[in-house]
Write a structure and sequence with these properties.
The complex is a heterodimer.
Chain A lengths: L3 H5 L11 H7 L5 H27 L1
Chain B lengths: L23 H22 L3 H14 L4 H13 L3 H14 L6 H10 L1 H22 L3 H14 L4 H13 L3 H14 L4 H24 L12 E3 L12 E3 L6 H79 L4 H17 L4 H9 L3 H6 L3 H31 L3 H14 L4 H14 L2 H14 L4 H16 L1
Antiparallel strand pairs in B: 1-2
Helix pairs in contact in B: 1-2, 1-3, 2-3, 3-4, 4-5, 6-7, 7-8, 8-9, 8-10, 9-10, 12-13, 12-15, 13-15, 15-16, 16-17, 17-18, 17-19, 18-19
The chains are: A mainly alpha, B mainly alpha.
Amino acid sequence: MLNFEEELQKFHPSVELDQQEESLYAQDTTDLADVLVGLIRDARIEGEEAAAAAASVEE
Amino acid sequence: MFCYNCGHILTSNDFCTHCGAEVRTYKSVMLTAERYYNIGYERAKVRDLSGAAGALRMCLKLNKDHVDARNLLGLIYMETGEIISALNEWIMSKNVQPKKNVADDFLDKVRSNPTAFEEMTTAVKKYNLALSYCYQDSMDLAVIQLRKVLSLSPKFLQAHQLLALVYMHIEEYDKAARELERCAKIDKNNTLTLHYQQELDQILSLNEDKKDIRKPRKKEENDSEAYEFNTYNPSSSVEPVIKPLTVKENTGISTIVNIIIGCVIGIAVSLFLIMPGRIQQESDKMNAKITEYSEQLSSKEADIQEKDAQIQKLEDELDSIEETMKGYTGADGTLNSYGYLLTAVNLYMTGNGNSLDVANALANIDENFVASTSDESFLTVYNELRSKIGAEVSKAYYDSGVTEYNSGNYSEAVRYFQMSYAYNEEDSTALYQLGEAYYRSGDLDNAINTYNEVIEKFPGMTNAYNAQKRLNAIEGES
């Protein structure tokens, strides 16, 4: 049998017109591509830093 | 597909030919996003809207700049009545690709029909209100609000689902089934809809079992008859129920009976609930009108009384004026008295009449008026004229009186002797003859009074002596 209270929890208030702007800005727009590019950049920076450290050690 | 580092178009290589950036994983992510978009598109085409929305959201999680995915997701939101979410998606799509974006068309269509937009936003507000009623356990209000929502926005999927849930909660399973059918028409493969449908089927099959236990069939029907199967639920412990198609409710008759019962209830409600209120309302209106008319009537009556008082006052004034006028113009009025006096003066001065004519004219003047008037001029002329003609008139009346006395007309003689004495009060003979005329006419009282007056006014004169003799004779007779 359905538990009405539990089922009711699945329904959420719909976004109203005066909340539109707020909801628009509240959206998480980070996608996997952003994450990936961040990882690549981090890896590149780490690589460059490691290379720079190795060069200084050699000197 | 563009390089994430420099924005240059990527080739089939695993690196950017422009900047040399490693793009193998990036391309893999982009292609996965594209696949999700395709899945979403395919699901949307067969009206599996919730499945399509899930795939498109996944696509956007992988690639937030996927314009087509955003536009399609906006369309799906619009189709399920969530207009604000749809607008958000299209606005973000426009932000990614400002030109040559189909989202422009969608936004223009929304802008060009402000009434529909207003209705949809109102529906959203009412949906939220209905949800709060559900949390407050006010199911009746929630149902009313949700019906309003669906009249404004018939494709509002969440509202249909919530209404179905409420109907199931209040055990109106037929209505819940209808709502779930509508949900399925909007979104064929919605998980929540399917879940509720499954629960509803279980409940209905349980109810059917109970009915069967309460009312077992009399006999099995012919094996050749067709059978109808309820939906089989493997998770349920209840076996599928086989219901012969011939065992049907007589829906036509029951519908008519229900309509008749509904009409009877409606008439009863109107008679016992609505009509008394209407009657009371009309009665109140009538009472208010009656009060208004009564006030107007009272005001008019007051006006009429005031007018009557004015009329009475004017009539009194008119009577007074008429009385005054009568005093001037009547037979004994002032004007007539003046007229007679003027006639007498005219006769005397012009000589057109003798002294008797003048005296007759003066005799017409009312003695009461002469006694009461304060007009000195009138009295002066009147008395002067009388004194002028007094002696002559007195003698003329005396002669006439003697003639009448000798003729035996004592009453006429009395009148003439009176007028004679009136014009000349020094004439004791006229007064004595007056007494004699009274005596002869049998009026002894006036005769005695007149004799006494002679004795009193003219003592020592012959007439006084004769009067005393006459008095003695009268006393002797009595």
